[in-house]
Specification:
two-stranded antiparallel ribbon; 24% helix
């Protein structure tokens, strides 16, 4: 194009590995800096993650997918069922 050949492009992402198997890193010539979540926790920039799992016995295999991810509307129908909400609130 007509752009300045000396222009530098800076790209930043918190999620370089995508669910569709493609990598955001492949868009750029080189990675200038990266740091892991665990390193950020060790340096006290992030707090440790505490999470709990709830067995809802849901069959997500019937939820429609798009681009390697669940379709939001289809997933919200399943996740907003009264039985599911009761389990997650408990």
């Amino acid at each position: 194009g007509n752009g300045n050949p000396n222009t530098l492009l800076l790209g930043m992402t918190a999620t370089p590995r995508r669910s569709d198997g493609r990598s955001a890193v492949d868009v750029f010539d080189e990675v200038a800096f990266e740091i892991s979540r665990t390193d950020l926790q060790d340096l006290a920039y992030l707090v440790p993650i505490h999470y709990y799992t709830v067995d809802t016995e849901l069959g997500l295999d019937r939820v429609k997918m798009s681009g390697g991810d669940f379709q939001i509307k289809a997933l919200s129908v399943v996740m907003n069922l009264p039985a599911v909400r009761a389990l997650t609130i408990r």
